[in-house]
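Module 6 notes. Inverse folding takes a fixed backbone as the condition and produces residue identities as the prediction. Think of it as a translation problem where the source language is geometry and the target language is the twenty amino acids. Below is one complete input and output pair. Work through it position by position during the lab.
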């Protein structure tokens, strides 16, 4: 899978076109996602797409030259200096959370004629209930995910193949990895480690002033190793107690909230298919990037392919605009219940389904659902291609993900 390395900027049209369609609505567009998921590149692509006959006000808060813009008053002065009353103005701010009380200035300028605002942020501070009330509902949130499999192929100049899929399930979709040679595994691991360290230190430990650093690090690794499994804070507390490490369920729940607020980990609620309700206990957790998840349990990556595949299916459903839940029905589990407006679909994920036990489990759980919504099994088992039984369709992972 050799490829030519370059630094060209690739337009992720899934996001840029969606943003452009939302401009002119009188609302701040907020791009969220964990660090290095590609938000900055999307913002830079927007500067090119919007620059014709308009005034671009671009502000990168990770650039040391902009360190003097530390609060909303500094930001307001900067906007006044650079805005053009004779043109349409697009204010684009990267890592806006670095500006104290930024929302006070944005709330004013979004109400001005000929003004649109798009900002990025890497943690959930900007989306707290307090800031939402300050914005008075005048913002639209667009979550930026790591590269999908189809984007991974584009960025890495790869053809569709099983080798490409295995590479994606191994390294994940952080865009910058495409600039590292495919055979330089050490540099790839070093880069993933640096991104995890940055998220962990800046968006978890420092921002929340956590003292028990080693425990939170071990908690993140525990979640990575158990991604796709149902567990609760109390079950983690019991596990730790067996290891002679005592931490309360409330503390664990607080730390899990912080990890999720960094956008590195997603909490997925359980959905009672029969009762049409959301369970409040025992959730599943998936990673926003498969590569980061694999990095945290890198000694087990070769045996965790099914977990990586399940994580990839979850991300694909999110990227396609679905709300995703874990299904529960009469004590049986459905990997994913995907909902979009009035549309519902059910998904099981299995590395192989030709073995009788796996076949009976995956088909059997879906057969228990008596409604007429679509039901699918996503697998890497080439022998199960195009299989249909009782309306349940088997889809090859390589086809589903691209």
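Target side of the pair, the amino acids:
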């Amino acid at each position: 899978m050799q490829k030519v390395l370059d630094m060209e900027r690739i337009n992720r049209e899934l996001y840029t076109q969606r943003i452009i369609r939302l401009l002119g609505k009188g609302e701040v567009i907020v791009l969220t996602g964990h660090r290095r998921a590609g938000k900055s590149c999307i913002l830079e692509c927007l500067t090119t797409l919007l620059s014709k006959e308009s005034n671009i006000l671009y502000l990168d808060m990770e650039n040391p030259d902009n360190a003097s813009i530390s609060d909303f008053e500094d930001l307001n002065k900067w906007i006044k200096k650079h805005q053009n009353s004779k043109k349409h103005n697009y204010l684009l701010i990267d890592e806006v959370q670095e500006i104290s009380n930024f929302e006070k200035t944005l709330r004013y300028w979004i109400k001005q004629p000929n003004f649109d605002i798009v900002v990025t942020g890497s943690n959930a501070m900007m989306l707290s209930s307090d800031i939402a009330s300050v914005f008075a509902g005048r913002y639209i949130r667009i979550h930026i995910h790591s590269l999908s499999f189809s984007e991974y192929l584009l960025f890495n100049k790869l053809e569709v193949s099983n080798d490409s899929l295995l590479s994606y399930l191994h390294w994940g979709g952080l865009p910058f990895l495409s600039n590292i040679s495919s055979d330089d595994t050490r540099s790839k691991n070093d880069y993933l480690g640096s991104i995890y360290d940055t998220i962990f230190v800046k968006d978890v430990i420092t921002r929340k002033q956590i003292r028990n650093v080693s425990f939170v690090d071990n908690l993140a690794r525990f979640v990575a190793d158990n991604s796709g499994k149902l567990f609760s804070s109390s079950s983690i507390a019991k596990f730790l107690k067996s290891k002679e490490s005592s931490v309360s369920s409330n503390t664990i729940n607080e730390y899990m909230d912080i990890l999720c607020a960094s956008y590195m980990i997603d909490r997925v609620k359980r959905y009672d298919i029969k009762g049409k309700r959301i369970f409040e206990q025992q959730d599943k957790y998936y990673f926003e990037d498969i590569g980061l998840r694999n990095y945290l349990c890198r000694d087990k990556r070769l045996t965790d392919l099914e977990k990586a595949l399940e994580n990839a299916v979850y991300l694909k459903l999110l990227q396609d605009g679905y709300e995703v839940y874990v299904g529960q029905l009469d004590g049986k589990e459905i990997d994913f219940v995907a909902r979009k407006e009035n549309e519902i679909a059910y998904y099981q994920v299995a590395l192989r389904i030709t073995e009788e036990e796996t076949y009976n489990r995956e088909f059997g759980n879906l057969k228990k659902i008596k409604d007429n919504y679509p039901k699918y099994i996503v697998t890497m088992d080439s022998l199960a291609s195009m299989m249909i039984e009782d309306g349940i369709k088997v889809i090859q992972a390589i086809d589903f993900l691209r």
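Reference fact for the lab report: The chain has 15 helices and 15 strands.
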